[in-house]
Amino acid sequence: MTDNSILTLTAGAMSIELWTTGARLNAATWNGHGNLLDGSRTLDDALGPKLNHGSVAGPVANRIAGGTADIDGLRHNFERNENNKTLLHSGSNSTRDAEWAVEEQSDTSATLSLAIARMSDGFPGNRVINARYDVFENGFDLTFTASTDRTTLMNLALHPYWSLGTDRAGLRLKVNSDRYLPVNADTIPIGEIVDVSGTHFDLRNLDAPSFEIDHNYCLGQDGAMAEIATLASDKVTLVIESDAPGLQIFTGKSFGIAIEPQHWPDAPHHPNFPSIQLDPGQTYSQTSRYRFSAT
Q: Could you tell me the fold of the domain covering 6-294?
């Protein structure tokens, strides 16, 4: 890896390790507890089997059905990189494996930036994306901003697998949402918005979650910061706040749980979902806060 490609930010008992490859959060430690997420040991890991482990997924995180979408009146065809059916996390030319530039850095903060040329990843617009990490004594904030010179799609998500120093079976999860999006066999939303009551998607109380969740929870569309999820081990508790309208939860791996504030998946095919269209002159913005405490 090149010089300055690994950054360490520290404030009090909190420290995070960032890699410019994928703008990834590769490690997080708090109050003497070792790495609280499943990171990569090598660049080959980060660009291979652990591509999604802590990287920033985009410019369109999650899935687009059929690998097609209409943007500004034109049909765009994308790489179908999941089972030859769907576009997942923007395919092989995504933000996950790109080398981001360090725009600003201090002991407690860093801004990473990525310029994406028009159509280089299949999406229109020359785009600039920024990811700013700010560390404080018991956590960190992550703020995404993005702009474009042509109408495009934008949905950014940090994709860590949180372990909190234990194995998957020892984690308990709470999600502050009473609605989720059912999906078809290709993990594409069918368009319905369903109450979680009486299903294994009901995570409104802190408990061990099912291993069968890879779904979006609907958080609202008002853009205000709110506490959206809590994850706990027997030693550490993580509370996540965000202004994102959705939260993707993926519980099916043995090494941790993915908790991803973002917009709703496959939004271009569902007019009733919050739009992910970004126009020239607009600024895409999303902020999430991650706070740790003793359980």
A: Beta-galactosidase; Chain A, domain 5 (2.70.98)
